[in-house]
Write a structure and sequence with these properties.
The complex is a heterodimer of chains A (308) and B (505).
Chain A (H helix, E strand, L loop, with lengths): L1 H28 L3 H6 L5 H10 L6 H13 L13 H6 L2 H28 L4 H15 L2 H15 L11 H31 L2 H8 L4 H26 L6 H6 L5 H10 L3 H29 L1 H8 L1
Chain B lengths: L1 H22 L2 E6 L14 H4 L10 E3 L6 E3 L2 E8 L2 E6 L13 H7 L13 H8 L2 E8 L2 E6 L6 H6 L8 H7 L2 H5 L8 E7 L3 E6 L12 E6 L3 H9 L5 E2 L7 H5 L4 E16 L9 H9 L3 H9 L29 H11 L5 E6 L7 H14 L3 E6 L3 H5 L5 E7 L9 H5 L4 H4 L6 H4 L1 H5 L4 H17 L3 E14 L3 E2 L14 E3 L1
Parallel strand pairs in B: 1-10, 1-11, 13-14
Antiparallel strand pairs in B: 2-3, 4-5, 5-7, 6-7, 8-9, 9-10, 11-16, 12-15, 12-16, 17-18
The chains are: A mainly alpha (308), B alpha+beta (505).
C-alpha cells in the first residue's frame, strides 16, 4: 500500500515538473509579449527596453532556471499588468470559478446520476429513449452555443437575466445551466452504461432471488457496484474544475480563472498563464491521485492485490 | 404670475434632480480588452488611448468637433523664438490627489524621470511623438518653456495629441514603480482612477475638484466582455450603455433594436499593406506597383465594411486640413497596367508570401483572401500564410504583411513620415527605406506652409512610385450605443466622456 502511494506521488511530481517545463517552453516560443503589452506600432527600442525590464532578453535556459528557483520559493513571477505577483492575480479568481463549478457539477450530478439510473432501470422503454435523446443533445451541443443561445433568449429577448459578469445569484443561472447541461449528460450516459453492466451480473439475480424488492436491489447492490466508473468520470470533471469552465466563463464574462486564462494568453502575460496551467495541472494530478486512492477503498480486489 | 413662477420653479427643481440623478450613474462600456497601463506613455494601443484625456489632460486641447486647438492645462502659449515655446499654466488646477498642478509637473513629467532620457520608462514609446523636444523648463510656478531641436511646425499639435498628456509629478514619484503607476495614474482630468480589477473592469470616478465643466457621468466603467454576442445582448438588454469593436456583420441586430444604434466610422488611421523590399521579387518597384494596381480597393471596403468606410486619396486623410493634398492622384484599379508592369519586370510567377493574423484587424482573413484572388487575376502568385503572432509576421523571409497607419496628429508628419521616414517603423524593421523619401523631412518640418505642402506632395508621390506598400481603406471604428446615450464618437480611439463629449445617458 505504501509502495503504491509512493509510486503514485512520484508520478504526480514528475507530471507537474513536465507540465511546468512544457508550459514555459511553449509560452516562450509563442511570440514576443511586448507586441501585446506595448502595441504593434512601437519600434524595436521600446521592445528591447521592455524585454530587458522583464528579463526576457536573457537566454531561455537562464530564464528557466530563474523561474524554477522562483517557484520553489513560492514566487510564480509577476504579471505584466501592474507587476502584481501572478499567484495573487490567479488566486483572487479562484472563488468565482469554484463557486460556479461547484454549483454546476453539483447540479449535473443531481440530475445526471438519477437520470442514468432511471434510463438503465427502464431500459428500452420510452423514458429511456427520451433520456438518451436529451443527454445526446446535451453532450453534443458545444457550451458556447448553449451559452450564447441562453444569452440571446433570457438576456436579450426576455431580459430576465443578466447577460454577463458576476456578483448576484441571477448572474449564476445561465453559466451554471450551461455547464450543468453538458456535465449532466455525461453523468447520465455513464451511469446508464455502468448500471446496465451491473444489472446483468449474477449477483443482482441472486439478490433478487433472496426476495429483495427491485428498488432495494438497485439501491443497495447495483448502485455501489456501478460507482467505480462514475468515480472515474467525477474525477475527470472535478480535476478540470480550475479551467473546465474556460469557454463558459468567456461567453458570460464570468470573473473567474477561465476568463483570466484567455485574457492572459491573448496578452501573453506569461507568468499568469504559467501559474494557471500549473494550478490546473496540480488540481488534475491531485484529483487523479484521490481517485486512485478511492478505487483502493471502494474495490477490495485492488486492496488485496496491493497487499500481496 | 405665481402659477408661472411655481411652474418654473418646479421645472428647475425637476431638471436639477434629473441632473443630479444623471450624475449618480455609472456609464458602462463593454470592451474586448482593458488598458494595460494607464499612463499614455505606458503603451501605444487603442485600449490606452480610449481613456487618455478623461484622466490625464494635455496642455493644449484638441477640439474634436472643430479640429481647432483650445486652451487646456495651459491658458496661453507663444513662440518666443523659432525653437522655444512658452506656456502659461492654468492656476486653478488640482491633481486627483488634491495637490496643485504647476509648471513643475510639466517639467518633471516631460523630464528625464518619465520621458526625456534614454532609458526613461516612457521614452522609447513616446519619442516618435515628441522626439523634437529637447528640454522642458519651469521658468516660474506657472510658466514653462519647451525647447525643440529645430523649428517644429507641429509642436502645438504634439502637445495637444496622444502622448502629450501631462500627469502629476508628486504622485508619479510616490508610486514607486512604473508598473504601479500604470494602475494608479494621477492626472487632472474630469475622471480619476477608482478601481482596477485586472481582467474584469476598470472604473473611473468623476473628480469633484476638476477645474472645468463637470462630466455628465458620476463614473464610467470599462468592463471586459470579450464575447461579441454577450456584448451585443448586454447592449440590447440595457446592461451596457456603449459597446466597442462592432463589425459590420453585427450591425443588423443592433440596428433592428428600437433602443440601440451603431455609431462611429473612419478614424485617423488607414488600413494598409507593407511590402518587404528585401524579398527577391518585391525588390523590383514595378512588381510592387503592379500589386497595387491589381487591387480594387472600393470593392474591399464595400465588401468588408458594408460601404461604411472610404478609400483614401493616397496615404493621407481629409482631417489633415491644409496639409491634405487634394490634387494628389492615388493609385487606382488598373489590372491591364498591372500585367504590363509585371511583364516589364520579368515576373515569372514566383511565390510571394503574405503573412497575416486571424482577424487582428477587422476582416483581416477575408481581406487577405480577396487580395490573393485579385493578385491571382493579374498573374501574381501570392501564398497566404496565416501565422500566430507578430514576431512571425515581421520575421525575415516575409513578403507582404498588414499594418494600420495611424495619424496620431492630423498631419503627414504624424502618419506617412512617422512610419515610413527616417527612424520610422518600416525603415527600422528594414522592410523599406528611401533616401528621396527621407529628404522630404526638411520640407515637412518647415514653418512655411507652402513648403510643407510641397514636401507632403512629394512624399505621397514617392509612396506611389516606389511603394513600401499600399493603402486599402480608412480604418473604421464602430460602437453600439443605447439611443438614450448622447455621445459622439470622434475620429480617434479616444472615447471622450468629458462634459462636451458625453452629454447625457
Amino acid at each position: 500500500m505504501a509502495a503504491i502511494l509512493v509510486r503514485k506521488l512520484g508520478r504526480a511530481a514528475l507530471t507537474v515538473f513536465l507540465l511546468i517545463t512544457f508550459t514555459f517552453v511553449v509560452l516562450r516560443l509563442s511570440g514576443d509579449p511586448s507586441f501585446h503589452v506595448l502595441g504593434v506600432d512601437v519600434d524595436q527600442a521600446a521592445r528591447d527596453q521592455f524585454r530587458a525590464r522583464w528579463g526576457l532578453d536573457a537566454s531561455i535556459l537562464t530564464q528557466y532556471g530563474a523561474y524554477l528557483a522562483g517557484i520553489t520559493g513560492g514566487d510564480f513571477g509577476r504579471s505584466f499588468v501592474g507587476a502584481r505577483p501572478a499567484l495573487d492575480v490567479v488566486l483572487e479568481r479562484v472563488p468565482a470559478t469554484l463557486s460556479l463549478m461547484g454549483l454546476a457539477i453539483g447540479l449535473a450530478i443531481a440530475i445526471g446520476i438519477p437520470a442514468g439510473v432511471v434510463a438503465a432501470v427502464y431500459r428500452n422503454r420510452s423514458i429511456d429513449r427520451l433520456l438518451i435523446a436529451v443527454t445526446a443533445v446535451g453532450f453534443c451541443i458545444p457550451t458556447f452555443v448553449t451559452g450564447i443561445t441562453l444569452i440571446l433568449v433570457f438576456g436579450a429577448f426576455l431580459q430576465v437575466l443578466p447577460t454577463s459578469g458576476g456578483g448576484t445569484i441571477a448572474h449564476y443561472v445561465m453559466p451554471v445551466a450551461t455547464i450543468a447541461l453538458a456535465d449532466a449528460a455525461i453523468f447520465a450516459r455513464f451511469t446508464r452504461s455502468a448500471m446496465l453492466d451491473v444489472l446483468r451480473q449474477p449477483y443482482i439475480r441472486a439478490a433478487m432471488a433472496r426476495g429483495g424488492s427491485y428498488a432495494y436491489v438497485v439501491r443497495h447492490h447495483a448502485l455501489p457496484n456501478a460507482a467505480l466508473p462514475l468515480v472515474t468520470i467525477a474525477g475527470l470533471i472535478l480535476g478540470s474544475v480550475i479551467v473546465g469552465a474556460t469557454i463558459t466563463e468567456n461567453v458570460f464574462a464570468w470573473p473567474g480563472i477561465g476568463r483570466l486564462l484567455v485574457a492572459s494568453v491573448v496578452s501573453r502575460d506569461v507568468a499568469v498563464v504559467q501559474t494557471i496551467v500549473i494550478l490546473a495541472g496540480l488540481s488534475m494530478v491531485v484529483t487523479n491521485l484521490a481517485v486512485d486512492l478511492l478505487y483502493i477503498w471502494l474495490d477490495p480486489r485492488i486492496r488485496t492485490r496491493a497487499d500481496r | 404670475m405665481s402659477i408661472i413662477r411655481f411652474g418654473c420653479a418646479a421645472l428647475a427643481l425637476a431638471l436639477t434632480i434629473g441632473a443630479a440623478q444623471a450624475q449618480q450613474r455609472d456609464l458602462v462600456v463593454a470592451v474586448t480588452s482593458l488598458p494595460k497601463h494607464l499612463d499614455p506613455m505606458g503603451a501605444n494601443s487603442n485600449d490606452n488611448e480610449r481613456v487618455s484625456q478623461n484622466v490625464v489632460e494635455n496642455l493644449i486641447m484638441y477640439d474634436f468637433a472643430t479640429g481647432k486647438l483650445e486652451p487646456g492645462l495651459a491658458t496661453a502659449w507663444r513662440m518666443i523664438d523659432a525653437t522655444t515655446m512658452e506656456l502659461d499654466i492654468r492656476r486653478d488646477v488640482k491633481c486627483h490627489n488634491g495637490e496643485d498642478f504647476t509648471a513643475d509637473d510639466v517639467a518633471v513629467m516631460f523630464g528625464p524621470a518619465r520621458y526625456n532620457a534614454e532609458g526613461a520608462p516612457g521614452h522609447a514609446i513616446a519619442r516618435s511623438f515628441l522626439g523634437l523636444i529637447t528640454d522642458v523648463e519651469a521658468t516660474g510656478a506657472h510658466t514653462v518653456r519647451i525647447r525643440t531641436r529645430q523649428p517644429d511646425p507641429l509642436l502645438e499639435l504634439r502637445l495637444a495629441s496622444w502622448m502629450g498628456q501631462v500627469p502629476c509629478a508628486d504622485a508619479y514619484r510616490a508610486a514607486g514603480s512604473w508598473d504601479r503607476w500604470g494602475q494608479s495614474v494621477v492626472g487632472t482630468g474630469p475622471f480619476k482612477v477608482d478601481t482596477v480589477k485586472q481582467g474584469q473592469f476598470v472604473r473611473f470616478a468623476a473628480f469633484d475638484g476638476y477645474w472645468g465643466e463637470k462630466p455628465a457621468a458620476r463614473s464610467f466603467t470599462l468592463k471586459l466582455v470579450p464575447e461579441t454576442a454577450a456584448r451585443v445582448a448586454g447592449l440590447l438588454a440595457g446592461e451596457f450603455h456603449i459597446i466597442t469593436e462592432i463589425a459590420p456583420d453585427q450591425f443588423r441586430p443592433i440596428e433592428a433594436s428600437a433602443a440601440a444604434e451603431v455609431v462611429g466610422g473612419p478614424i485617423r488611421s488607414i488600413r494598409a499593406l507593407v511590402y518587404d523590399s528585401r524579398h527577391p521579387i518585391l525588390k523590383d518597384a514595378r512588381v510592387r506597383r503592379a500589386l497595387n494596381l491589381a487591387i480594387d480597393r472600393k470593392l474591399i471596403a464595400d465588401a468588408i465594411f458594408a460601404s461604411r468606410t472610404p478609400v483614401p486619396q493616397g496615404l493621407q486623410q481629409a482631417s489633415f486640413g491644409d496639409m491634405f493634398i487634394a490634387d494628389h492622384v492615388a493609385t487606382g484599379y488598373d489590372p491591364a497596367r498591372a500585367r504590363t508592369l509585371l511583364a516589364e519586370a520579368g515576373y515569372k510567377g514566383g511565390e510571394i508570401p503574405y503573412r497575416y493574423l486571424k482577424d487582428y484587424y477587422t476582416g483581416e482573413v477575408a481581406t487577405a483572401q480577396i487580395l490573393q484572388q485579385m493578385w491571382k487575376a493579374v498573374g501574381v502568385n501570392v501564398k497566404l500564410e496565416l501565422v500566430d503572432n507578430f514576431n512571425q509576421v515581421i520575421a525575415d523571409g516575409g513578403g507582404i504583411s498588414n499594418i494600420s497607419n495611424a495619424a496620431y496628429y492630423p498631419d503627414p508628419l504624424g502618419q506617412l513620415f512617422r512610419l515610413y521616414g527616417r527612424g520610422g517603423l518600416i525603415p527600422t524593421r528594414k522592410q523599406w527605406s528611401s533616401a528621396d523619401f527621407d529628404a522630404t523631412e526638411a520640407g515637412l518640418l518647415s514653418l512655411d506652409k507652402s513648403e510643407r505642402q510641397a514636401a507632403a506632395r512629394r512624399a505621397l508621390v514617392i509612396y506611389e512610385n516606389d511603394p513600401p506598400g499600399t493603402y486599402l481603406h480608412e480604418l473604421p471604428m464602430f460602437y453600439g450605443k443605447r439611443k438614450s446615450v448622447t455621445w459622439m464618437a470622434n475620429d480617434t480611439a479616444f472615447m471622450d466622456f468629458r462634459a462636451g463629449g458625453l452629454r447625457s445617458f
